[in-house]
TrEMBL record:
SUPFAM superfamilies: Class I glutamine amidotransferase-like, Ribulose-phoshate binding barrel. Keywords: Amino-acid biosynthesis, Cytoplasm, Glutamine amidotransferase, Histidine biosynthesis, Hydrolase, Lyase, Multifunctional enzyme. It comes from Candidatus Desulfatifera sulfidica. The lineage of its organism: Bacteria, Pseudomonadati, Thermodesulfobacteriota, Desulfobulbia, Desulfobulbales. The gene is hisF. This is Imidazole glycerol phosphate synthase subunit HisH. Residues 4-199 form the Glutamine amidotransferase domain.
Amino acid sequence: MITLLDYGAGNVRSVRNAIAKLGHEVCDVTGPEDILNAEKLIFPGVGRFGLVMERLQRDGLVEPLIQRIRSDKPFLGICVALQVLFEGSEESPGVSGLSILPGQIKRFAPGNLSVPQIGWNGIRLHGDSSLLNGYNGDKLYFVHSYRASLEGLPEEWLLTTSDYGEQYVSGVARGHVAALQFHPEKSGPAGLKILENFLNSGQDRVCEITARRVAADQPTVMAKRVIACLDVRSNDRGDLVVTKGDQYDVREEGEVRNLGKPVELARRYYEEGADEITFLNITGFRDFPMQDQPMIEVLRKTSEEVFVPLTIGGGIREFTDSEGRSYTALDVASEYFRSGADKISIGSDAVYAVEEMISSNGRSNGSSSIEQISRVYGAQAVVISVDPRRVYVDRPEETGHHTIRTELPGPNGEQYCWYQCTVKGGREGCDLDAVQLVQGCEKLGAGEILLNCIDRDGTNSGFDHELINLVRGAVSIPVIASSGAGCADHFVQVFQETKAEAALAAGIFHRREVPIIAVKEALNAAHIEIR
Ligand code: 1PR
């Protein structure tokens, strides 16, 4: 029996699902005595450092946790649960951690790398431990803006380090206790193997570092991510289907295109090596997701079988239902997180939030959906889905928008264009450009940009590099390039010609025109880091 410390913030369902998949039963911590008595305790830390500590304090769990770890009872901490083992964090000044380990957690300062670090990185082994038995060197999934430093860490605890602009601690272990900065439950087969080693250990000190190693010199390198996207909606018969549009028009001869079943396709992409799966509930702007149980069910079922990150978007905003019951955007997002999402994506509501901030002279009162969700779940859990389209102009100075000189002139020979943001799945254009939107969203607390392009969507003509360079240059959070992939070479080109951290495609994967493995092989042949 595995005991899980779930304090109600973030995606703990994935850890639950991974444990179940590995054949173990899970029970929850219901009070301080469970922390002390549990045979094996897993603590998946999600959210901000201060919030995690506040919840532990509220539930009287701080002292029992310290006692458990000091008395060397089996314990596995994940992500922020590694960070709270230290004395404090720059993320939440003045909040004390568990102080098992000395030092402060600091924010990444990686120069031109984006923060948060989101994606697949390597680990460098500093010692041998049965926790890593069978680990084959595959990359593992990280998502964080703050990191533990090597400085002052007692050597007997140091299991692994990784690099992201600087070297940081990615795993600590001693005796029966370990904590990992990466997410084993989201790291595919390599992560599940590590989790399994912990779950299956008997009385042996599974985490003990039995021999020291001379760590490799080469830095670990983040992989460029390949993401499969599933646009989901109900067809005219009421079945939830994966569909795909051409420039956002998903109907063919009057019918909604049906390219498959969401859970089946997601499972297929996981098995084929997708680094992440994104679901977009494309009619979410008019339907209300908390009444849309099928979509939540899709997420629940997918997270039982798919152990890479899942993002879900569509309809994340505040809402009042027909009985007058109101839900905040945070309520909606929380339901998605509880159902297995690791990140949520916001489209239309992000546009409204930035328009409002601009009309209030760049100030916000803290109530936007982005701020609400980011405060509780952290910036890395909030993705902004941008749906821009090109507007060609002759005179850039007259637009009042961020305009570029384009190598692809407009229909009347226009040399310039700007990218107009849209809402409601491209149905309405706004007086806001893509740069204004993404900069506004970063300021409000978003952690990643999913950059679609209506002009390229479904065209198979390649990604819009001009758009991607414009947006990537405007923010310091990761950017996912989306729309237009038609062949494996388009992925090579987008990573060679832009600084996008990830690239997403839909149509070519759904129609089996290009397998994910072919994309990975092409990237590998071009010496682009992959998982
Ligand atoms: O506004 O918060 O409710 O979110 C709605 C979400 O649904 C947004 O993320 C928006 O992008 C998405 N959406 C709305 N309508 C459509 C549509 O297609 N009619 N899909 C839509 C957006 C774009 C990509 C697509 C890529 C890659 N789809 O997700 O997967 O363009 O396609 P390709 O590789 O085939 O070119 P809210």
